[in-house]
Amino acid sequence: MTMQPRKPLRLALIGWGAINRRVADLLAERSSGDITIAAVAVRNPAAAGDIPAGAKLITEPDELAGLDLDLVVEAAGREAVGIWGKAALVHAPAFAVASTSAFCDDALLARLIAAAESRGSQLLIPPGALAGIDGIAAASLLPLDEVVHRIVKPPAAWRGTSAESLLGLDGITEATAFFSGTAREAASRFPQNANVAVISALAGIGLDRTRVELVADPAAGGNGHQLSARGAFGKLDIAIENRPLATNPKSSEMTALGLVRLVENRVRTLVR
To answer: Which chain positions lie within coiled-coil regions (predicted)?
Structure first.
């Protein structure tokens, strides 16, 4: 039997912050030449002098045209999803969105779904920092009664967010919940830290039925997520504690690892 050579996957990264830099580093370490970073999109070219060799530095969505892309991965913040989303779906067969808090805007999500349908492309939602999303998505094929997502992070991870106006981060001595509400509310108010709540919501019962609790815990060793789901399928309870990215404590190492897995699965013979 003659083996058919696989065409290298051509990847564009939207954003060159902590997450996509980590993704690029991991792909470079692990790749055997079957993945090429064809382009990196940024707002400020002066801050992106260290992009991967051979990658084209771009600043406008229409520059995705003609790059023969197989996948576009966004990790640049919620505004970037609206700016780059349609062009990504037009010029590549798949667009993976890390800044899922953008999908609190129902109209934006509807526009991108429509764009994907019109081009035959796919809008992909990675698992982010979570475990068990495949289980919740499968369970949602039958009626789900509830999904609860508890996010526990050390006080330092909540600095620079509106959590600072809700409690004194320097003074707490035990785990302290400072927000309880819907996934839509959590991701809208805390887009850097609770962005991940949109992932559990879209996998299950939606932004307005998924309950989210945000907690600052001085004893937390990392960024933790506790997911519980109840429904016709049975019961699911999962907990994960992630190491934060060394260059950004608001994000988890698992977020970058999940994106690497998504990219590599596009070229693997055995998908897992």
So the answer is: none
- Tens digit of each residue's pLDDT (9 = 90 or more) over 213-246: 999 999 998 899 999 999 999 999 999 999 988 8
Contact 154, 243 (CB under 8 A): no
20 is in an annotated binding site: no
CA angle 233, 234, 238 (to 5 degrees): 110
Q: For the whole prediction, is pTM greater than 0.85? A: yes
Nearest Cα neighbor of 84 from 132, 14, 29, 23 is 14
For residue 145 the two structure tokens come to: 């009664």
**Do 214 and 194 touch, CB atoms closer than 8 A?**
yes
Per residue in 29-84, pLDDT (tens digit) is 997 779 999 999 999 898 888 999 999 999 999 999 999 999 999 999 999 999 99
C-alpha neighbours within 13 Å on the C-beta side of residue 129: 32
**Is 129 assigned a ligand-binding role in the annotation?**
yes
Query: Position of tokens 């260059």?
Result: 247
Distance (Å, whole) CA 215 – CA 24 = 31
